[in-house]
Amino acid sequence: MYPFLAIASAMQKRGHDVLIASAEYHRKRVEESGIQFRVTAPNCDFSNAEFQQRAFMERTGARFFLRDSMLPQIGRSYRDLLDVTADADLLVTQTLSFAGPLVAEKTGIPWISAVLAPLSFFSYADSPVLAPQLRRVRELMPRLNSAINRAARWTTRSWSAAVYQFRRELGLPPGADPIYEGQYSPMGVLALFPRWYAEPQPDWPPNVSLTGFPFWEERHIDTETESKLEHFLEAGDPPVVFTLGSSAVLDPGSFYEESARAVRRLGCRAIFLGAARNARDDMNHRLLTLPYAPHDRVFRAA
Question: Are 23 and 39 in contact (CB under 8 A)?
Fold first, then answer.
């Protein structure tokens, strides 16, 4: 959501009327940013711990999230988005906006798609590591990249059945696989990262624009977190920040324990972001654990 909040805020500053349509889970953060919000299906509850854990399981997470949770709701998603875009001049979608391409194709609304990371291009020329156990194989035998990519597509070939069925109901041709090429707009694709992060590949869509990272400056932070953070930052030397990605925080393993040992050995101060809410702030006030804090606030003082 954050990159799209950054884009929406920038467009708003240029005088555009902007609306974000997504799950109810995102409403508070979007509206606190001064941006209009509408709920659209699939209205997944991302605050549900069980849902998060199932969605990010290494072997079955993608199947649960896409095949079982997102794609079967394509009809509701389409109708919701059709209503939201009735008076819109432009539709911007992200990788999981499966109804977006259908609305654009059916109504003719100008449409731009966006990807957050190179992974979403599923490049044969620069194939992503789809499973940890394949990393070594990929490094030793680059020619297997395309075979691994094809295997992934074969595994997911039936997941989009609900989308193909709904396209038939709308009187649309089958189209490209919505998980892969079907997500890219012929008008233009925004790659929301810089060139140094990933060089364009020959099998990317022909109309990709690398935008750099869209940074969003968060306006709101809860009072308790603000107080703890400011007190800690003012109490000593700049800290080292330890954090994990959006899915890794659900199963950090021994990351924070090992990080704490490193902090003890170095004798430095540290902030652990994404640490459990009941994690202790110890080591003579040299460690602060927070479930969340805006990175721009933390990193500028680190």
Answer: yes
Q: What is the DSSP letter of 144?
A: G
What is the reported pLDDT for 173? 97
* Residue 231, Cβ density class (10 Å: 0-12 exposed, 13-18 middle, ≥19 buried): exposed
Q: What is the pTM of this model?
A: 0.85
Residue-wise pLDDT for 106-159, tens only, equals 999 999 999 999 989 988 877 766 555 666 665 655 567 777 778 888 889 899
The HSE-up count of residue 181 (CA atoms within 13 Å, CB side) is 13
Element at 289 (helix H, strand E)? strand 287-290
How confident is residue 206, by pLDDT bands cut at 50, 70 and 90? very high
Q: What is the CATH number of domain 2-210?
A: 3.40.50.2000
CA pair distance 298, 302, nearest whole angstrom? 6
Residue 42, preceding bond cis, omega within 30 degrees?
A: yes
Cα–Cα dist 29/35, whole Å: 9
Superfamily covering domain 223-299: Glycogen Phosphorylase B; (3.40.50.2000)
Strands (E), 143-276: 189-191, 208-210, 240-242, 270-273
Name the segment(s) of the chain with CATH classification 3.40.50.2000: 2-210, 223-299
**Tally of CA atoms within 13 A in the half-sphere of 177 that contains its CB:** 14
Distance CA 20, CA 34 (A): 11
Per-residue pLDDT, 278: 46
